[in-house]
Specification:
- The chain is an alpha/beta fold.
- It has 2 domains: about 5-135, no CATH class; about 140-405, Metallo-dependent phosphatases (Purple Acid Phosphatase, chain A, domain 2, 4-Layer Sandwich), CATH 3.60.21.
- Helices cover about 40% and strands about 15% of the residues.
- The protein is elongated, with a radius of gyration of 25 Å.
- It binds fe (ii) ion.
- Fe (ii) ion binds near residues 202, 341, 343, 382 and 386.
């Protein structure tokens, strides 16, 4: 669906929800706090409308206001959607009470809103808002965590038994503001002294010029066997507007040359290999793969060219949905897949082996290591962040994988 159409319906539903919730809110109109609170309430609704207005007329608000608007609109929407079932149950209950006159009589023409449902609705509304606010002010977006996993692979050539891989993803450099903290994150990557590094896409949010000033830091990401990268959905400049197709193409070229300048090897539907003791580690890199035709650039057939079933292969693909869609059925010989993209929604619970996030509704594999019939996929939770400038429970990640021959 076209983004403007999507945003139109989203804005419409959001405003209708605001009007619906106000019917409940206004029963407190005799309270002192009602008037100032209602100003705040309708201000958020106005922001929802303005957000659409600015998008529709391609007006650039600048990073600060864009982020502020985005968070208010999304936070308000999520909170209302979570609270909606409680309000609906209560309204349905009230409706049935209304159509039975004997109930009406019993309650002296007053239909009390169930206290339990009111409290539940308030909690359901308050929890997302409070936790999302906490996720921003806690500065969690720079609280980098190293996840260490051992992956046992049948087909691993003996020369690579024990190889240390660093996997990073979704840097989204345009979102990063705390340079000192990011430098610390990059130091964490380099201090691991991994044999090889894989970056699985979304280097920028929209434009290659987000890389300005970051060259020296990103060039520090080096490894003896090389740094390999692929493109993510945000790297194509398709979530922003351009003056011309030429400008968009120039932006894309700059993103590609930028990665070359860092010393990274960007794989665009192609494969490469590193050789140790005469044995090959094949790296297959696809462009962004999507389940719809929009942003479908990944061509695994093409990327695979020249390889045989017997070769050991690591696939880099930004979107983990690609694994179930093609890899686990048509490419049973791909040993390990590395992905990112989900960010774990930057929201969830992630303690030890227990992890849960609403993003699971959209992605079967959304964080950490998964195995199916001796094929593995690792989904990195992202180094940076996008849109929501916070993280709740799902922290930014640097993955260290040790490959072992099984
Ligand atoms: Fe991303």
């Amino acid at each position: 669906m076209d983004r403007a159409v999507f945003l139109f319906f989203f804005t419409l539903i959001s405003i209708l929800l605001d009007i619906y919730f106000y019917q409940i809110f206004k029963k407190y109109k005799l309270k002192k706090w009602f008037l100032p609170t209602s100003y705040v309430y309708w201000s958020i609704t106005s922001v929802t409308f303005l957000n659409f207005f600015f998008y529709f007329f391609s007006l650039d608000l600048g990073y600060f206001f864009k982020t502020l608007f985005f968070n208010l609109v999304i936070g308000n929407f999520i909170s209302k959607v979570v609270a909606l079932p409680f309000i609906l149950i209560d309204d349905i209950r009230r409706f049935f009470i209304k159509i039975y006159p004997y109930k009406k009589k019993k309650q002296n023409n007053v239909i009390p809103r169930s206290k339990f449902l009111s409290i539940s609705a308030s909690l359901a509304y308050g929890l997302p808002l409070t936790s999302l606010t906490y996720g921003i002010i806690s500065n969690n977006v720079y609280d980098y965590r190293i996840k260490r996993r051992v992956v046992k692979l049948d087909n691993l050539p003996s020369a690579f038994d024990g190889i240390k891989i660093c996997h990073i993803s979704d840097i989204h450099v345009g979102s990063l503001r705390n340079r000192l903290a990011v430098k610390g994150g990059i130091d964490m990557i380099t201090n691991e002294k991994s044999d090889i590094i894989f970056f699985t896409g979304d280097l920028v949010n929209n434009r290659s010029d987000e890389l300005k000033g970051w060259g020296d830091d990103l060039s520090k990401i080096k490894a003896p066997l090389g740094v390999y990268s692929v493109l993510g959905n945000h790297d194509y400049g398709e979530y922003t507007s351009w003056k011309s197709e030429n400008e968009k193409n120039r932006n894309f070229k700059n993103l590609i040359t930028g990665q070359k300048e860092f010393g990274w090897k960007l794989l665009m539907n192609e494969n490469d290999n590193v050789i140790v003791d005469g044995q090959k580690l094949n790296i297959v890199g696809v462009e962004n793969w999507a389940s719809s035709r929009f942003q479908q650039y990944g061509e695994l057939d093409k990327a695979y060219s020249g390889l045989t079933d017997e070769d050991f292969k690591i696939l880099m693909t930004h979107n983990p949905s690609h694994w179930n869609a093609q890899v686990t059925n048509n490419y049973r010989d791909i040993d390990l897949t590395l992905s990112g993209h989900t960010h774990g929604l930057q929201y969830g619970i992630d303690i030890g082996k227990f992890r849960v996030s609403p993003v699971r509704l959209a992605y079967k594999q959304w964080a950490d290591l998964y195995e199916l019939n001796r094929q593995y996929i690792y989904v990195n939770r992202g180094f940076g962040f996008m849109g929501y400038p916070g993280r709740v429970g799902i922290l930014p990640e640097i993955t260290i994988l040790e490959l072992k021959k099984s």
